[in-house]
Design brief:
heterodimer; A: Rossmann fold; 2 domains; B: abc type-2 transporter like fold
């Protein structure tokens, strides 16, 4: 990983009317890094990515993307960035090859034909290249979109929920490819809702209501939350959850499969709160997972949001 | 709930439709606006009995009877003498340019011949490319002549009143002597078809990208507004030329429309006209938020084009305000070009003024389009 960051922005802000969708976000992404962007729907992830690639004008903020001024040089940035939209946004009435060819021309790719052929081959789309993009299944559409984003050999890829609606096998293949490309020096900024995907990222950031709440490696994010979590097993956990919620020291009681995760920021207070229920249920102190931390962060920011 | 028809379900649909109608203000506006527009255009602008048609006079006789006759023609309300010409060549020229609809020629010694009972000739040359525009004005001439000189034919000249027809009226319906409506309609149709299809097709061009979500992708690529807009226009120019060729073939083989002028010139002029319509469509496309609005927008443009251009109703029969609007529309000028080239044999010099007006329109429309085109999703 080299010293100059791929993305280095400060105070990025976007308002839609009176609503602040992205609020003074600072972000640094190193070269060759896979950076995960997490947060609930409407937290400003897509808006932030769109500002990076010049699709939206930021109201405030400054910085560089691939060493170029993120505000003034967005046309230059576009040439070196691949952006994969949340919704499939290639032409459904063009074939796979025609789509790739179009993109290659748009970016002025040299040896276009070679590049298109290589791209089709690399993604295992050979033999299906004449098929219309609109007839592809979700997984294949995603592959095509990624292939199209890569054809001009960008240095930075911005992927907005690339695996939404894609089956687990295709998701795993996709992530393997991402890691391989990152090893070759490509930088990724990926938004996702999946915890397992977050754990595949080198570093992650968590956004809620336009604010960047935390960032770092998965381990750092979990540790910085200072959360104590108990896993509970037993009968009628729903009733238990209802009783625990609102007790001092208990921040959240969330069902995870057949168990209940009870978390709090103050270990002693939490212990006191659960004491009356200790004998009726099976309690284990666990290290909190990302999901526990995120639910915690989301609840907190919701409180802030409501108070504001 | 009834198995076959439930009032609740029925009401649910009705309520939902009303809510959606209220949300889409533009569509609702169009539903109210288009009938209103139609009402105004049909009610006030359309006149199938055009009067005050521009005419020129070639006065070769200054006698009192000639003057009386001329003022009688003017008083009929159909002729408005806008200029005087001094030779037959000049008369032809003003007709060819479409400056005037008629040239009235009063020959030398008209008054003298009249008094002698020598039946002088009164020549009316009409630009009859659009028979509807000229027919009424021509038809009133005969009854007019018998009454016009009644006051003069009194006293010593009373003998002339007994004469059946003291004046020999000759009418030359130029360019379309047999008053065949197709000669006027078919070339005009070329402009109408182009206006309708070109505007609508390109109006959908950008809204479709937006609706399908491909716009976001397109904007994330390094491209400039002119590249996108012109790139979307050019393919349809070819479609436009296919249409023109088809219409010309049909005009020739099916309707036997005369083609006096240069077809090459017509194709050159069509380039500017097609470009103007495509530019309008592209501009609508940048203004509309969805495809339905884009179609409605093009209809809003098409309707006045159809009614105020002189295609359906004589241009000169319309009130001044309608003519002013008509002069802005590219179809008005293109109709004059097509009819001029095909029926009158107009040359480039004859049509250049019309062509410039279309070109100006195209440029303005394209610049609004480029100005309105957003390179971001803001």
């Amino acid at each position: 990983m080299s010293e100059e960051p791929a993305i280095d922005v400060k105070g990025m802000t976007k308002h839609f009317g009176t609503r602040t969708v992205v609020n003074k976000i600072d972000l640094q992404v190193r070269k060759g890094e896979i950076y995960g962007f997490l947060g609930p729907n409407g937290s400003g992830k897509t808006t932030f990515i769109r500002m990076l690639c010049g699709l939206l004008k930021s109201d405030e903020g400054s910085g560089t993307c691939l060493g170029l001024d993120v505000i003034k040089q967005s046309e230059e940035i576009k040439k070196q960035v691949g952006y994969m939209t949340q919704r499939f946004s290639f032409y459904e009435d063009l074939s796979i090859r025609e789509n790739l060819d179009f993109v290659a021309r748009m970016y002025g790719v040299k040896n276009r034909e070679e590049a298109v052929n290589a791209s089709i081959k690399r993604l295992g789309l050979s033999g299906r290249e004449q098929q219309l993009a609109g007839q592809l299944s979700g997984g294949w559409k995603q592959r095509l979109a990624l292939a199209a984003c890569l054809i001009h050999e960008p240095k930075l890829l911005l992927l907005d929920e690339p695996t939404a609606g894609v089956d687990p096998k295709a998701r795993r293949d996709f992530w393997e490819q991402i890691h391989q490309l990152a090893a070759e020096g490509l930088t990724f900024l990926i938004t996702t809702h999946y915890m397992d995907e977050a754990e595949r990222c080198h570093r992650i950031a968590y956004l809620a209501y336009g604010d960047l709440l935390t960032h770092g490696t998965v381990k750092e994010v979990i540790e910085s939350a200072h959360l104590t979590t108990w896993s509970v097993k037993g009968d009628d956990l729903l009733k238990l959850a209802g009783e625990l919620r609102g007790k001092p020291g208990v921040h959240q009681a969330v069902a995870f499969g057949s168990s209940l995760h009870v978390s709090g920021g103050d270990a002693a207070a939490l212990k006191q709160a659960i004491a009356p229920y200790r004998k009726d249920y099976e309690w284990t102190l666990i290290s909190p997972g990302l999901e526990d931390v995120f639910i915690h962060l989301m609840d907190q920011s919701k409180d802030n949001f409501a108070a504001a | 709930m009834n198995r076959y028809f439930s009032i609740t379900r029925f009401l649910a649909i009705i309520i939902k439709e009303f809510i959606q109608m209220r949300r889409d203000r533009v569509t609702f506006g169009m539903m109210v606006g288009i009938p209103l527009l139609q009402l105004l255009l049909f009610g006030f602008a359309i006149n199938s009995d055009p009067k005050h048609l521009p005419a020129a006079v070639l006065m070769n006789d200054q006698g009192p009877q000639a003057r009386t006759l001329l003022s009688a023609i003017r008083n009929s309300g159909y002729y408005e003498f806008v200029r005087q010409v001094h030779s037959e060549d000049e008369a032809r020229e003003v007709l060819e340019h479409g400056e005037v609809q008629f040239v009235v020629t009063i020959p030398q010694d008209f008054s003298r011949d009249l008094l002698r009972g020598d039946k002088p000739t009164l020549l009316i040359e009409a630009d009859a490319t659009d028979p509807a525009a000229t027919s009424n004005a021509i038809n009133i001439m005969r009854p007019l002549l018998t009454t016009a000189l009644q006051n003069d034919f009194k006293g010593p000249l009373a003998y002339l009143a007994q004469n059946e027809a003291p004046i020999d009226l000759r009418i030359h319906a130029l360019y379309n002597p047999e008053a065949i409506t197709q000669y006027n309609i078919v070339p005009g149709l070329m402009g109408v078809v182009l206006t309708m299809t070109m505007v609508m097709i390109t109006a959908l061009a950008i809204t479709r990208e937006r609706e399908r979500g491909t716009m976001e992708n397109l904007l994330s690529m390094p491209t400039r507004p002119f590249e996108v807009l012109l790139g979307k226009i050019i393919p349809y120019m070819f479609v436009g030329y296919i249409q023109i060729t088809l219409i010309l073939l049909a005009a020739h083989f099916l309707f036997h429309v005369p083609m006096i002028g240069s077809l090459g010139l017509l194709f050159v002029a069509a380039f500017v006209f097609i470009a103007a319509n495509l530019a309008v469509g592209i501009t609508f496309s940048t203004l509309a938020t969805n495809q339905l609005q884009a179609v409605q927008g093009s209809f809003f443009f098409f309707l006045p084009s159809l009614l105020l251009s002189g295609f359906m109703f004589p241009f000169r029969g319309m009130p001044q305000w309608a003519q002013t609007i008509g002069e802005v529309l590219p179809l008005t000028h293109f109709l004059r070009i097509v009819r001029g080239v095909l029926l009158k044999g107009n040359t480039f010099a004859d049509i250049s003024l019309q062509l410039w007006q279309i070109a100006l329109f195209a440029l303005v429309a394209l610049f609004i389009g480029v100005f309105r085109y957003r390179q971001t999703l803001d």
